[in-house]
């Protein structure tokens, strides 16, 4: 039995050879047995194979004695929301996010929407799948569950609706699921939405929705210019990540969005803790401190950040990869809450998005994440650390190695999932220095890789 679809944080694989209804049914049985869950939320994304896989998954859950609450076609965050809001034992989202069209997968959570990954149950579920199963003495029941009304109410609770003003916003769902939510929110907001690739279509006629790829950005940027919009937003397929474009159509690095959201959130809460990843940090630390909050660094990755937020009772957590987490959203990531907060900020401040961001880019220019395929990543990282830690102000190993000097810093880390090394460099208000050090580090990595 091919169990290669089980990864570190979720399941992902090609349909039907790596994931199919027969395997999905066994995964449902294994999930119920291993977790002991009796009430489970099931939702699925817009992929063509998703309804069939979700049905088979639900059959397995019910055969093992768990009641299935089916929330139907949705985004990952609706499974998170429904699991925590209705106090279920767990939830499973059938999605392969931004993977190729012929792939599918699952994201699993337990009570309170806590992530189930390889270090807390996912490997146990994988190991249970190939073993024989018997049916539970009492079959679980099936119940459709309407969650959209409660979810939309929850989203609107993050903003002061009285401060919102009419403006045009470009929204690009990439033919994923985000358009369904925009259509619901539209009835409650004064914004005029210019909709691009809006219809949910698992054939992905305009390519797989993944705005982090540069070639996928032009269509949103051009629409912003064409409509004279205040900003543009693009999502991935299951809309747990959102990406921003300013009123000039410029794509904004996720790093600067983390700082802006932290600032906006702390203004509302009057302080609190903010969790951020170690790749780029100075801008976030600066804004959090100025807003009366406390910035705390965590290892990159949703399972680490969510746990650290719980440990610290943090109000918000952000990664430069466009994942944004909220305490009041069961510490989970949402692709809808961030843009609502930024739209609110534009309305309240009267400023353009570019003016809010430009000041931060000038204060802390950054390289953006640069990936290099390296034959022996640990060797290269160790050699770079040995060379650059001499005379450094601070060396940290929260995630890979972060080395800090008075006027510049960098983070170098291995990918969790592929043989690449990821580099991020930033400086204090000095673009030439940031560029010089980035080029220097890349040349050194190239030399060490020979």
TrEMBL record:
Outline the extent of the Alpha-D-phosphohexomutase C-terminal domain.
369-430
Q: What is its EC number?
A: 5.4.2.8
Which cofactors does this protein require?
Answer: Mg(2+)
In which pathway does this enzyme or protein participate? Nucleotide-sugar biosynthesis; GDP-alpha-D-mannose biosynthesis; alpha-D-mannose 1-phosphate from D-fructose 6-phosphate: step 2/2
The source's domain of life comes to Bacteria
Catalytic activity line of the entry: alpha-D-mannose 1-phosphate = D-mannose 6-phosphate
Domain (Alpha-D-phosphohexomutase alpha/beta/alpha): give its ranges.
Answer: 6-128, 150-249, 254-364
Q: Where is this region: Disordered?
A: 102-122
Pfam families linked to this entry? PGM_PMM_I, PGM_PMM_II, PGM_PMM_III, PGM_PMM_IV
Q: Where is the signal peptide?
A: none
Enzyme class of the recorded protein, top EC level: isomerase
Keywords of the record, alphabetical order, are: Isomerase, Magnesium, Metal-binding, Phosphoprotein
Q: Which family does it belong to?
A: Belongs to the phosphohexose mutase family.
Query: This chain belongs to which protein, by name?
Result: phosphomannomutase
The lineage, from the top, is: Bacteria, Pseudomonadati, Pseudomonadota, Gammaproteobacteria, Pseudomonadales
């Amino acid at each position: 039995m091919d169990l290669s679809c089980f990864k570190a944080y979720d399941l992902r694989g090609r349909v039907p050879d790596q994931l199919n209804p027969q395997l999905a049914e066994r995964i449902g049985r294994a999930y119920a047995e291993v977790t002991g869950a009796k009430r489970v939320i099931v939702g699925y994304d817009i992929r063509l194979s998703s309804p069939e896989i979700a049905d088979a998954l639900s059959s397995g859950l019910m055969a093992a004695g768990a009641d299935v609450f089916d929330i139907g076609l949705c985004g990952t965050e609706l499974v998170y929301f429904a699991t925590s809001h209705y106090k279920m034992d767990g939830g499973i989202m059938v999605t392969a996010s931004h993977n190729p069209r012929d792939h599918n997968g699952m994201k699993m959570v337990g009570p309170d929407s806590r992530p189930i990954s390889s270090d807390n149950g996912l490997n146990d579920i994988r190991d249970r799948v190939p073993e024989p199963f018997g049916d539970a003495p009492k079959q679980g029941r099936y119940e459709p569950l309407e969650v959209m009304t409660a979810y939309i109410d929850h989203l609107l609770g993050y903003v002061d609706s009285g401060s919102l003003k009419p403006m045009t916003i470009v929204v690009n769902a990439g033919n994923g699921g985000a358009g369904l939510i925009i259509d619901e929110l539209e009835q409650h907001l004064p914004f005029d939405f210019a909709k691009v690739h809006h219809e949910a279509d698992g054939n992905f006629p305009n390519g797989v929705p993944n705005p982090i790829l540069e070639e996928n950005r032009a269509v949103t940027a051009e629409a912003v210019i064409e409509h004279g919009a205040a900003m543009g937003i693009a999502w991935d397929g299951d809309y747990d990540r959102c990406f921003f474009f300013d009123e000039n159509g410029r794509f904004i690095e996720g790093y600067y969005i983390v700082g802006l959201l932290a600032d906006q959130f702390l203004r509302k809460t009057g302080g609190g803790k903010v969790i951020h990843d170690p790749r780029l940090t100075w801008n976030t630390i600066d804004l959090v401190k100025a807003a009366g909050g406390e910035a705390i660094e965590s290892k990159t990755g949703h399972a680490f950040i969510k746990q650290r937020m719980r440990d610290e009772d943090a109000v918000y957590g952000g990664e430069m990869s466009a994942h944004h987490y909220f305490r009041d959203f069961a510490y989970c990531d949402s692709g809808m809450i961030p843009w609502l907060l930024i739209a609110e900020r534009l309305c309240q401040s009267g400023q353009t998005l570019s003016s809010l961001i430009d000041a931060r880019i000038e204060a802390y220019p950054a390289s953006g994440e640069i990936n290099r395929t390296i034959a022996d990543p640990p060797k290269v990282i160790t050699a770079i650390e040995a060379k650059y830690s001499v005379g450094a102000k601070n060396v940290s190993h929260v995630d890979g190695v972060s080395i800090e000097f008075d006027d510049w810093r960098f983070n170098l880390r291995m990918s969790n999932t592929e043989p690449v090394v990821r580099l991020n460099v930033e400086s204090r208000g000095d673009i030439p220095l940031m560029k010089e050090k980035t080029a220097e580090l890349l040349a050194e990595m190239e030399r060490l890789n020979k």
